[in-house]
Write a structure and sequence with these properties.
Blueprint (H helix, E strand, L loop, with lengths): L10 H9 L4 H11 L6 H17 L3 H10 L3 H11 L2 H10 L3 H10 L3 H10 L3 H17 L3 H18 L2 H24 L3 H18 L2 H18 L2 H17 L3 H17 L5 H21 L4 H17 L3 H12 L5 H17 L12 H4 L7 H9 L5 H9 L7 H19 L9 H10 L5 H10 L2 H11 L8 H8 L3 H11 L8 H10 L3 H14 L2 H13 L5 H11 L5 H10 L3 H21 L1
Helix pairs in contact: 1-2, 2-3, 3-4, 4-5, 4-23, 5-6, 6-7, 7-8, 8-9, 9-10, 10-11, 10-12, 10-21, 11-12, 12-13, 13-14, 14-15, 15-16, 16-17, 17-18, 18-19, 22-23, 23-24, 24-26, 25-26, 26-28, 27-28, 29-30, 30-31, 30-32, 31-32, 31-33, 33-34
Length: about 600
């Protein structure tokens, strides 16, 4: 990826840096240039090479190694890490150089079993990777970590299918199912819907590995249920389409027909124009079910039920001609004389009334038809857990990750790693992180920054804890709520910082945690801060929550909820406002919601 040159001229600073030779002033000059993280890739690479050579001459092997890792220069990075790095550093760079077998050995020596197993798998040592994942299952069960044990079991099952036979795979996948189901229930009860969603996505994978429909369907249905609770309409339609396509591949015709119907009814409820597409496809699927039952010689009653379901779906879209065709088929079945006569009469009546076939519904868009990318949560979350809680481990791993980390974030991670090395070079206390580094962690805007910030919070004095919490608001990652809740449980300045940050974490993925904090804390300032952020989030579900607080006067905050709705009613809330206006029994509240609807629509008209 290429980046444009900065507006300011960099020729003079580069000449100055080169003129300073191998001095400390030269290192500072090159570092100042590297702060320009949006410059052209060629320029940035040149500056990095100059600084790496300078650090190597000055004996700062670790800093030089970080730069070579950023540049993806594997041999010099390995040589430098062997002098000063850790087994984790060596394993990471060996993998970068595709030396996966050696990387696995280094990771094992460092006690990083998930990393070792993944590297072994990438080297082609499937049996060795299976043994490592099975060991990890036992380790995580012994330490009472059911989620990580479940993930390790999914991976063991995935590899056992390849090298150990179906029986061994079934055993470990059954354990994965039990652990993930229990963990999903626990997380939902704790209000962690995102965490439960991850468990259910893993159950989908278990179903795929087993080749059985039950865990597969359980995973998808629960994912859709959670998305419905969150009001995420676009993802719901995509998950329905994905589930239907997968069910079709497995030959689950009854499920396909029922899922099409369910998706159509959902789309109609929320006002999507694709409801008719789903209902017509549901009707066609029920006809296929009837035809398959007839071919297998199944009882006429089963065929009848499928054709009645098909006629019901065609009727929902007012396609009288195809409803009549369904009744014609019903009249031809071996049923009682009364039923046959009734179906024949209905077929004749509808065929006469139907002037023409119903028009085709709006086409289902390609962007909904695209297969959802497979998120290998069962691998990724295990690796994340082993990623460390200090800056060299948690942030250093981003420096060379050119596949999943945005380029500018890689550069920012490099600058943090170099700043940390600066701190250690002057014999700084590893437990007392300079404020500038804390600030850089906040600006990184990557979830990897949360664990180092948490470690600083736990080890720091009051001033450090307050600073860490204040800077955490910049991250815009839902993982930051672990830090916010620690601050809310603290006192004085730290707690005040937690409340202030709570008012600023108003990005949409934060909604679940904001609602949970509102419901879990009785302190008026905490509830007020959470409610304000919920209003700024401004999604359908946020609107529903504010309306519920208004109706129930939760914690005496009805007036606050009303004011926030007045201030923040917006286009994204319109579906929820419309729905509540239709269903609201209280006349005054219905009038209030109606005014909000009209205001949003007027604002839309003014823009368009």
């Amino acid at each position: 990826m290429r980046y444009s040159r900065p507006v300011s001229n960099v020729a003079d600073p580069v000449l100055r840096a080169r003129s300073l030779g191998a001095t400390a002033e030269a290192a500072a000059a090159w570092r100042e240039l590297l702060e320009q993280t949006h410059v052209d890739e060629a320029d940035y690479g040149d500056w990095c090479r100059e600084l790496a050579a300078l650090y190597a001459r000055q004996g700062r092997q670790l800093a030089a190694a970080r730069i070579h890792e950023y540049l993806l220069n594997v041999p010099p990075a390995l040589e430098l890490y062997r002098a000063r790095g850790t087994g984790r550093d060596l394993g990471r760079v060996l993998q970068l150089g595709r030396r996966h077998r050696e990387a696995s050995q280094r990771y094992r020596e460092a006690g990083l079993l998930a990393h070792a197993a993944r590297a072994a798998e990438e080297s082609g040592d499937t049996a060795g990777a299976l043994a490592l994942f099975e060991h990890l299952v036992r380790q995580k069960e012994a330490t009472y970590d059911p989620y990580l044990a479940g993930l390790a079991a999914v991976n063991a099952g995935r590899l056992a299918v390849k090298v150990a036979g179906r029986e061994r795979a079934r055993s470990v996948l059954a354990l994965a199912t039990r652990l993930l189901e229990e963990e999903a229930d626990r997380r939902e009860q704790a209000g962690d819907r995102d965490g439960a969603f991850r468990c259910y996505l893993c159950l989908v994978q278990v179903g795929r590995l087993e080749g059985t429909y039950e865990p597969f369907a359980e995973g998808y249905l629960n994912c859709i249920r959670i998305l419905k609770a969150k009001g995420d309409r676009f993802f719901i339609v995509q998950y329905y389409h994905e589930f239907i396509a997968a069910s079709e591949e497995l030959g689950e015709l009854h499920s396909v027909a029922e899922l099409y119907r369910e998706a159509g009814e959902y789309a109609r409820r929320v006002g999507f124009i694709y409801a008719e597409h789903f209902l017509i496809e549901a009707a066609k699927a029920w006809v296929r079910v009837a035809e398959a039952a007839a071919q297998r010689g199944q009882p006429a009653e089963l065929i009848e039920n499928a054709l009645l379901a098909a006629s019901g779906c065609f009727n929902r879209v007012h396609d009288d001609r195809r409803v009549a065709e369904c009744y014609e088929r019903l009249a031809a079945l071996e049923l009682g004389d009364k039923k046959k006569a009734r179906y024949a009469a209905l077929a004749k009546e509808l065929a006469t009334a139907a002037r023409k076939e119903a028009g085709e519904p709006p086409p289902f868009p390609e962007y909904f038809r695209r297969r959802l990318p497979v998120q290998e949560i069962w691998v990724r979350d295990l690796l994340e857990h082993e990623s460390g809680a200090d800056i060299p481990d948690a942030i250093g791993r981003l420096v060379g990750d050119h596949k999943t980390v945005w380029e500018v974030q890689r550069r920012k991670a490099l600058l943090i790693a170099l700043a940390w090395d600066d701190h250690l070079v002057v014999r700084g206390d590893p437990q007392r992180i300079p404020a500038a580094i804390v600030d850089q962690l906040g600006e990184l805007q990557h979830a990897a920054a949360v664990r180092p910030l948490l470690a600083m919070f736990e080890a720091g004095d009051e001033a450090t804890r307050a600073l860490v919490v204040e800077k955490s608001a910049q991250l815009k990652q839902r993982e930051v709520f672990a830090l916010i809740e620690r601050a809310l449980s603290d006192a004085g300045r730290v707690r005040d910082a937690g409340v202030a940050v709570l008012r600023r974490v108003n990005f949409p993925p934060a909604l679940d945690n904001l609602v949970r904090i509102f419901n879990s804390y009785e302190s008026p300032d905490v509830r007020d801060a959470a409610l304000r952020s919920i209003a700024v989030v401004g999604t359908d579900e946020a609107c529903e929550f504010l309306l519920d607080v208004l109706r129930a006067n939760t914690a005496g905050l009805a007036a606050k909820a009303r004011d926030l709705l007045e201030q923040h009613a917006q286009e994204r809330m319109l579906s929820a406002l419309d729905r509540n206006r239709r269903q609201e029994p209280d006349a005054q509240l219905r009038l209030f919601i109606g005014r909000l609807v009209e205001r949003v629509r007027l604002a839309r008209s003014a823009l368009g």
